[in-house]
Write a structure and sequence with these properties.
Length: 476
């Protein structure tokens, strides 16, 4: 069941009606039943590997949580399953046998997310940060909770248990704020991401036909597509959960406002970044064992991030690029300080922050080209040919209309990006649009709400070039 479907909205409505009509101490059971139904609608075959993870990690927490050897054994077993399935689905088969290719249909949806989720649970239990869950059905709900099972955010058991099991009374303000967040997610996905997708596919599929600003545009639009696609899905998940009174932690903090690569990773896919820091980087020694060891630990951490996204070499290069960015950024701090002093530029000045954001976005965009390309050679070709021709006139000559979007569609896309930027700026200034909106008269809220719904329907689903694309991170 796709988030972008009428069936999902009906599923959500039915569950909401049931959830708020039963006693609070039984509400978690309705969430479990519907989460099982939601997961089963993808394929009953995917339950095999999911149950292996669920049973082994639950058993560790229940009976073996103080045994270090069992911790490593359980983690290793589940990580091996994850990587083995990724290997098969990436087409990198150990044996040239079609029987192995058939295993790709057995890959559980969300396996990358729930594997990290259960690893964090086991480590937290082993270190005494949380008590192990004794009720297997409650543990199953922790793993299966339908809004976050597909693409995160990756929750910690200590953060989510009370939200899931304590029950919630209906609160109009919480419900509406969740509904607004859900609508914002649909706007990001259907109005922005799916339109960028048309141009991105054209440029990346025919990359040898383009040079200069065409390829730069492709990289920029893919960066926007990936963010609005992933953030849109997560916002739908956060909004859905909030309508039940359940607060999931945000997974993005306007990452393209970052002033450095390190800042980018504090803002992008926050739950994954926190996992990599807490369970990979710090256990390796972090920055406690000297500069050289720190740099090695950074590279290892981002190597793991690359593999987690996929077994293709281009994913690994993407991860290592981000590691190299961070190492170079740390190593060149004295050079940066010298240049700032030479040009008399204040660290917190507008000009410095603007240049830092532009440069950071450029580095991130270059890395995303490797992430999107099917091979390293294709990505290298595209990056090199971004700078082989100076053709900025394409933005005023009408040549952009040959890339899959008509003039009015480009105007709609630009207007949508401006709106998203305004929302981001207000959020950066700690101004909550939702809180301000909830203070308005009821008739005004309904007018704006209906306007938003119709805008999404008209410009997204029923737009002249709409083509529903699968959520990008659903493949990971």
């Amino acid at each position: 069941m796709d988030f972008v479907s009428v069936s999902y909205l009906l599923f959500l409505l039915i569950l909401l009606l049931i959830y708020y009509r039963i006693p609070q101490n039984r509400q978690w059971i309705s969430l479990l039943v519907f989460s099982i139904l939601f997961y089963s609608l993808f394929s009953l075959k995917i339950w095999f590997f999911f149950l292996i993870t669920a049973v082994t990690t639950y058993a560790f927490g229940r009976w073996f949580c103080k045994k270090r050897a069992m911790l490593f054994l359980t983690i290793a077993g589940n990580v091996l399953i994850l990587f083995a399935l990724k290997l098969f689905t990436s087409g990198l088969y150990i044996f040239a046998d079609e029987r192995f290719a058939r295993l790709s249909v057995l890959v559980p949806v969300g396996i990358s997310f729930y594997t990290l989720q259960t690893i964090a649970y086991m480590v937290d239990v082993y270190k005494g940060r949380v008590l192990p869950e004794k009720n297997f059905l409650r543990y199953l709900l922790f793993m299966l909770f339908f809004p976050q099972i597909l693409q995160g955010p990756i929750p910690h058991y200590g953060d989510l248990k009370d939200e899931l099991f304590s029950g919630h009374r209906f609160c109009e303000e919480t419900f509406l704020s969740g509904f607004y967040l859900l609508l914002w997610g649909y706007f990001q996905k259907m109005v922005i991401a799916d339109r960028c997708n048309l141009v991105v596919n054209q440029i990346f599929d025919q990359y040898t036909s383009y040079e200069g600003f065409y390829l730069i545009l492709g990289g920029v639009l893919y960066s926007i597509q990936l963010y609005t696609d992933f953030a849109g899905c997560v916002n739908i998940a956060l909004g859905s959960a909030r309508m039940f009174g359940i607060q999931l932690k945000p997974n993005f903090d306007h990452p393209y406002f970052a002033v450095s690569i390190r800042d980018f990773w504090r803002r992008w896919h926050i739950s994954l970044s926190s996992f990599l820091k807490d369970y990979i980087y710090i256990p390796l020694g972090g920055n406690r064992k000297g500069k050289l060891r720190k740099y090695i630990n950074i590279m290892i951490t981002f190597f793991v991030s690359g593999i987690w996204h996929g077994m293709g070499l281009h994913y690994i290069v993407w991860g290592l690029l981000h590691g190299l960015y961070q190492v170079a950024g740390d190593f060149l701090i004295p050079v940066k300080q010298f240049l700032m002093k030479l040009f008399k530029m204040e660290k917190n000045s507008f000009s410095h922050r603007l240049l830092s954001r532009i440069f950071t976005f450029f580095l991130v965009m270059i890395a995303w080209v490797f992430f999107r390309a099917e091979s390293v050679s294709k990505a290298v070709y595209m990056v090199v040919h971004m700078f082989t021709r100076w053709n900025p006139w394409i933005f005023v000559s009408g040549e952009l209309y040959t890339l899959g979007l008509k003039e009015e569609e480009w105007l709609l896309l630009v207007a949508s990006l401006v709106l998203m930027a305004v929302v981001a700026v207000l959020h950066e200034k700690s101004i909550s649009i939702t809180k301000a909106f909830l203070k308005q008269p009821l008739f005004f809220r309904w007018i704006v709400l209906l306007g938003l719904i119709f805008m999404i329907l008209i410009t997204g689903i029923y737009g002249p070039v709409y083509d529903s694309a699968q959520f990008i991170y659903g493949g990971f």
